[in-house]
Amino acid sequence: MKHIYSFYVDAARIALQSIFAHKLRAFLTLIGIIIGVASVVVVGAAISGLNTYVVDKVAKVLGANHFMMARIASSKQLSDEEFERMNRRNKRLQWDDFEWVRDNCSVCSEVGAQVNAQTDLSQEGVEFPSAQVFGVTANMVSIEDKTIAEGRYITNDEVQRSAMVCVLGADIKEKFFPGKNAIGQELKIRGLPMRIVGVEEKRGSFFGDSFDRHLYLPLTTHQQIFSRASGLQIHGKAQTREALYPAIEDARLAMRNKHKLKGNEEDDFGVVNVEDVNNQVDEFTSGIAAVVIPITLITLIVGGIVVMNIMLVSVTERTFEVGLRKAVGATKKQILMQFLIESATLCALGGVLGLLLAAGICWLISALAEMTMTITIGYIFLAVVVSSVIGIIAGIYPAFKAARLDPIVALTQNT
Questions:
Q1: Cystine design at 326: which of 3, 18, 148, 407 (Cβ 3.0–4.6 Å)?
Q2: Going along 161-251, which residue ranges are E strands?
Q3: Which helix (H) or strand (E) holds 40?
């Protein structure tokens, strides 16, 4: 055991001595490996960062442990046939549907309702086109985890009596009340004055949709100003992530009972939830990784070919050394292992340098683009292991060639 340990330690020492004896050549040889490892890690970090960014945005937009029921709703892309079938079959959800689910979903921690419309705002010469006006129940603030920067949200009492109050998104507030306190002011919606009771915290955009263009009214007030024909969206929330799917099933069963659906009949409503959206994001980013990562690995393969070429040169340069070692008793296996260890060490060193380069690039991108670049353990392991394996594969032929050298012939070729 001690002999074996000593052999591998000596082999690693000789490999490092050979690498540092030709620093420039080793570095130029490793450029392909360094770039390949850096590419794999940076692409992996970008994909992980994108996944985290989208999931965080979804959580901010929809809230955690949140699901929605509507006349037509699906977490996947509907075909034309599916949409037409749902459009013919599904009923518009009304206030009594909301009350039924609220009263009969025992697993749900909250059940609220919401309806949406779009309108242009205009007041005292200031115009704001295409504002999204939501009619909401008071508990939508907790269901969607909203943050109110100024004032407060809609109250239950205001929903019950159809109060003429509203909560503004950040962009609407800045458009009509720049640099001023908007609380207590009035904003006209379709000619009707609404007293402002709150301003939502700035939320930014998601896939081109700005959440700061939103405006919130009591749901009953919204129904009086806009058409009731579109029906409601019913929103539910579970206390924990583990309770989300049981809550969805409880709400779904309650809605089926309300609509008197038999066991073999399809739902006449749609359901989507945050977890399904997150799963779709995971599938999307996994699909990107499945395509992009193999492409970046091609760089590592090219780097491996360069390493093989340099190892062949190294065998030629060290023919006398190989002959001398075989003359004093080194076996073919030991010579083979010597060059394989050297090749693997060379590529592993390239892998480490590639990781350092990737870390620098990720830090720079995070600082400039304000996007989190997450270097995961999986991609680090993949990059280092793949680079080492490529080093071993690239060193097989040169090592095999060195192991087969005739010691007598090798000793006569002192280069």
A1: 407
A2: 165-168, 186-189, 192-200, 205-206, 209-210, 214-218, 233-237
A3: helix 23-62
